[in-house]
Each structure stands twice: as structure tokens, then as C-alpha cells.
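Subject: for your reference before the review

Hello V.,

The reviewers asked for a structural picture of the protein, and I figured it would be easier to keep everything in one thread rather than splitting it across files. Below is the amino acid sequence we used in the manuscript, unchanged from the supplementary table.
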Amino acid sequence: MEFEKAKTTYRKNAFVQKQMAHYLINFLIKNFKKEYDTVFEIGSGTGFLTDEIREKIKYKKIILNDLTDNFTNFEPDIYIKGDINKITLPKNVDLILSNAVFQWVNDYETLFKRLRKIINKEGLIAFSYFGKKNFIQIKDITGIGLEYPVLDNFIKKEGFKILYFEEELKTLYFKDVHNLLDHIKFTGVKAEDKVWTKKDYNGFKNKYFEKYKDNMGFELTYHPLYYVIKAI
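And here is what came back from the structure prediction:
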């Protein structure tokens, strides 16, 4: 992930992630509750979800985490920098939240095992993630893209019950391939490691035009998933 390089462009371009944060928190407070003692956000980034938490959740203490320095423009009670599977986690947490972050985790069994140890008995974990159709156009043409494992088995294996699950497809349209690729770049996603030649780019552009261009423009699909889970 190229997020640290894209921190200045993320908030302007990651409007799907912003919508996801808004939906996740609104669903949580409507269907569960909005008052928690200790809230822990994983992958706070530039603060889309943090903003929603501060506006809509009542808490006594808030802890933020990310791989990078704190870019939220908010000083939490505690900020923990580092990989969620390697840092020392806070204890006795009542609500764990994360938005559009878990796709970067390498070991889901470890993740949910660690979260199980810190969540209080009646605590909740609410997060958004992406499904297998995310950026499906890019993967179809290049053969390269993130894998998006189904998380249900990891969740249940580590002693959680899924209280709520929902998925949706969001299709964006761009006027040309260059704008589409800029959108991906500015949201901190690096599609592949190799440097494209002009021939590579033209080939990609031509294939995209043939397969994923209509009268609305060049399409790009997001596949958000939403979970609320609790320990059993």
C-alpha cells in the first residue's frame, strides 16, 4: 500500500471509503448502541471513520492505530503506530472499529485471535472490508490484484458471532483511463510493482476501452462488505 505517499490526496479522492465509514457508523448506532467506554479504531488513516466516531459515538476514551503517523488532525487519548498484528494492543475495549483496512492484513487468524483477547464480554467489532469483485476490471485485464478472502470462517473460528453482514456494489465512471488510474493512485493503492512502458499502458487502455467503456465512461467497481460481530 502506498498510503503514506497518498495522504494528501486521499481525502479528496477516496469518496467510496468516506461513504463506507458514514454507512458503518450510522448502521451501528441505529441498530445497536452509541455509548461505549473505550473505543479502538484500527487503521485511522486521514480520519474518515474517526470523524464519524467523534460526531456520533459517545465514549470515555478513544484509541487510534495506523501503520503511519497520525494523519487525522485529532489527538486521541492514545495513538499506537504499527502493524495491528504486531503492536501491543489496548485491553478491555468495548468497541473496535475499522473502515476499508482489513484487506491489507496478511494473517486473519492472528488478527481475530488478538481482537478476541481484548474485546469486553458485551463488546462489538464493526468493520468494513472489500469483496472479490473489488476492482474486478483491473484484475481481469492485468491478472494482478489483491485477494479478498471470505472472513466468515476466521471470525467464527476465533469465537465470534456475526450479528450483521451486508454487501453492495458501487460502480464509478471516469472520462478516460488516465483519470481512472489516477483515482486508484491517489487513494494509496498500487496496482502492481512493475513500471509500465508506453506499450503496456496503451495495451491496458485499449483493453479497458473494449471491455469496460460505455456511454457513462470507463467503469471501476468497488465491492464494500460490512460486518458487526461479537464474542460468544
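For the response letter, the relevant points are probably these. The first strand starts at residue 35 and ends at 42. The beta strands are 35-42, 58-66, 78-81, 93-98, 119-130, 160-167, 170-174, 213-214, 217-222, 224-231.

Happy to draft the paragraph if you're swamped.

O.
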